[in-house]
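Budget justification aside, the reviewers requested a transparent look at the raw inputs and outputs of the sequence design task funded under Objective 1. We therefore reproduce one unedited record. The lines immediately below are the structure tokens for a 149-residue chain.
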């Protein structure tokens, strides 16, 4: 089954509880060398279903910086970036994923393929306030758009 069929079956037919499909998706995401496949799953993932899929996506060496930032945005990590620690126990899983993505960005784990764009989901005022409130220079990568070649 190609990734588009699997994507459709996993997200659009309600089979997210099917263990066979879960294993197929997990295997595909762990073993793909396609940043486009990882992006497709990141864009379709319902974060209410947990963070296992985004964790696999952002652990794959083929994960593009734009895809990692998409996941970063979807777990609402901008507050973590600005204020540091999480304050609620229920946020623990997303905070751990935030830390992993942040550290991978710092360490250059993600590359820019030039094929996948990312638009920062913050207003210009929000970005300004983040910078004014002490956002570190090295964290500016999280608030910059990525365009395609």
């Amino acid at each position: 089954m190609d990734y588009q069929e699997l994507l459709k079956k996993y997200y659009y037919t309600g089979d997210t509880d099917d263990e066979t499909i879960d294993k197929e998706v997990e295997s595909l995401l762990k073993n793909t060398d396609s940043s486009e496949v990882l992006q497709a799953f990141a864009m379709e993932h319902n974060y209410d279903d947990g963070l296992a899929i985004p964790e696999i996506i952002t652990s794959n060496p083929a994960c593009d910086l734009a895809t990692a930032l998409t996941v970063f945005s979807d777990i609402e990590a901008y507050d973590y970036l600005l204020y540091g620690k999480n304050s609620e126990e229920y946020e623990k899983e997303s905070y751990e994923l935030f830390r992993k993505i942040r550290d991978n960005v710092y360490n250059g784990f993600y590359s820019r393929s030039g094929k996948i764009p990312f638009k920062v989901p913050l207003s210009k005022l929000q970005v300004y306030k983040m910078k004014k409130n002490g956002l570190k220079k090295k964290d500016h990568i999280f608030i910059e758009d990525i365009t395609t070649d």
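The chain has one domain: 3-143. Residues 3-143 form one domain. Computational costs for records of this kind are itemized in the attached budget.
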